[in-house]
Design brief:
The protein has helices spanning about 1-25, 55-75, 85-90, 100-115, 125-140, 145-150, 180-195, 285-300, 330-335, 345, and strands at about 30-35, 35-40, 45-50, 95-100, 160-165, 165-170, 200-205, 210-215, 220-225, 235-240, 245-250, 255, 260-265, 265, 270-275, 280-285, 315-320, 325-330, 335-340. By secondary structure, the protein is an alpha+beta fold. Among the domains are: about 5-25 and about 220-340, Roll (T-fold); about 85-170, T-fold (Orthogonal Bundle), CATH 1.10.3980. Helix 2 (about 55-75) runs antiparallel to helix 7, helix 4 (about 100-115) runs parallel beside helix 8 and helix 7 (about 180-195) packs antiparallel against helix 8 (about 285-300). The longest helix is centred in the first third of the chain and has 26 residues, at about 1-25. The chain is globular and about 90 Å long. The structure holds adenosine-5'-diphosphate and magnesium ion. Magnesium ion binds next to strand 11 and helix 8. It catalyses: L-threonyl-[protein] + FAD = FMN-L-threonyl-[protein] + AMP + H(+). Keywords: FAD, Flavoprotein, Magnesium, Metal-binding, Transferase. It comes from marine sediment metagenome.
């Protein structure tokens, strides 16, 4: 009897150890991740790659290559950096061929395409007008109608001829500004770098413009916060598995002249800053498309949603903090959740 009991105890112990091991193997997440922040493109970039325990090196390699991809896009496309390809194109005289890398060409081709699709609301050739308003913001003095007309006269895609390996301007003073699309392209390139490094999932967030893919460390889809345009906190969250969420808001980057606030987004129809849409958020398969359409709808407002291509969804917050309206496409609504106090209960028609 006692011999039996003695044998029985180790049997239980073995069972317990095996069961615990099994439970650990089952419930210990197979995925690991990292979360790092960098100063890129005049803002904070947060990268969150995910890999399996079998491939831990994908985190380090993914981060390194994704950051390099973002910095490369910044170096090629910034109009502020003196030796960027875009700076070269902008300072070139009419008729001079300016060689461009495949990256810059790809973004210019997409920018030209979205200019057409958005009825000219997204127009990367408004560089001369942007330059005028940036200077006005610094000098704290509004430009004259004449200055605006002069700048507007050298805007438009008809002033640029895109060739296979570069571009030529047809008029002196024409300038491209990729500020409304290059960040998205950089995010796409960073996501590509994470995939190539072997990551099974990841998130790239550059100043609130986000793209996600694949798996999180813990199960479930990615959840992306959309900032409240009127104050601190979030207006809500977007849930998605693969794709991008970009927001254009005039609450973040703007300037003041004589007590009035002006957006950094130009309405190409008037060559003046837009002022009616505090925040536009767009969901699209790629960050390049989401970024550009967020800027386009900042110009067009809610009526512009009819121009959105298939697979692109939007939310437009219009008007002022006192009397704002929130519009969203059906597909956006399916993925969006309001954070209190925002939402249908407070804003029911
Ligand atoms: P951010 O996300 O950095 O706030 P946006 O995506 O909203 O920027 O794009 C705004 C930037 O796009 C401006 O700073 C300017 O460089 C450029 N831009 C301004 N107006 C237009 C326009 N109508 N079309 C294309 N680009 C524009
Ligand atoms: Mg944009």
């Amino acid at each position: 009897m006692s011999r039996r009991a003695v044998n029985f105890i180790p049997a239980i112990a073995v069972f317990v150890v095996v069961a615990a091991g099994l439970a650990l193997a089952l419930f210990r997440p197979d995925r690991i991740d990292d979360d790092q922040q960098y100063d890129i493109m005049n803002t904070v970039a947060t990268l969150n790659p995910v890999t399996t325990r079998a491939k831990p090196e994908a985190l380090h390699n993914g981060l390194r290559n994704a950051v390099a991809a973002l910095r490369k896009v910044e170096a090629h496309m910034s109009s502020h950096l003196d030796r960027s390809e875009i700076a070269n194109l902008n300072s070139a005289p009419a008729g001079e061929f300016v060689p461009l890398s495949a990256d810059v060409r790809a973004v210019m081709v997409m920018a030209r395409h979205i200019a057409e699709a958005s009825d000219g609301a997204f127009d990367a050739t408004v560089g001369p007008v942007i330059g005028l308003w940036v200077a006005a913001g610094k000098a704290k003095q509004l430009p004259t109608d004449e200055q605006i007309a002069t700048a507007a006269a050298v805007c438009g895609w008809d002033k640029f001829e895109l060739r296979d390996d570069g571009a030529v301007k047809s008029i002196d003073g024409a300038r491209v500004n990729l500020g409304g699309i290059a960040k998205g392209y950089g995010i796409d390139k960073a996501i590509e770098a994470l995939r190539k490094a072997g990551c099974v999932g990841g998130m790239v967030d550059v100043g609130g413009d986000v793209r996600v893919f694949g798996q999180r460390r813990l199960d479930g889809p990615w959840v992306v916060g959309v900032r409240n345009p009127f104050g601190p906190g979030l207006i809500g969250t977007v849930t998605l598995q693969d794709g991008s969420v970009c927001t254009s808001g005039n609450y973040e980057r703007n300037f003041t002249i004589a007590g009035r606030r002006y957006s950094h987004i130009i309405d190409p129809r008037t060559s003046r800053p837009t002022d009616t849409n505090p925040s536009v958020t767009v969901i699209a398969p790629t960050a390049m498309v989401a970024d550009a359409w967020a800027t386009a709808l900042s110009v067009l407002g809610w009526p512009g949603h009819t121009l959105l291509p298939a697979g692109v969804e939007a939310m437009v917050v219009t008007s002022s903090p006192q009397a704002y309206e929130i519009h969203m496409t059906e597909g956006f609504g399916e993925r969006f959740r309001f954070n209190p106090p925002f939402g249908p209960t407070e804003n029911a028609p």
